[in-house]
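Journal club side-thread
Mid-discussion, someone asked how the predicted structure for our own chain would compare to the paper's figures. Pasting it here so we can look after the session.
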Amino acid sequence: AQPDPAPVTRGIARHQARFPLLSTVQSATRDGLEVSVRELGDRRAMVTYAKPDTDYQVIYRFELASDCWYLIGIQDDSM
């Protein structure tokens, strides 16, 4: 048996990011993805994009600061 994969965390500079970072809900559902939004208290939220019957799942984490939502992390659980 293979050991479970270990999570890898890395930061990137803005110039390394490919935009747009996430697609619109309409575009995602057209591509067969399910989109769910979950509030984690007053100032945090997460948006999950998942494709049913596959291992595709990407979680975007946001934080509210100065009346603006900021993307603070992306977790890609796809294999």
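Post-session note: The first strand starts at residue 34 and ends at 39.
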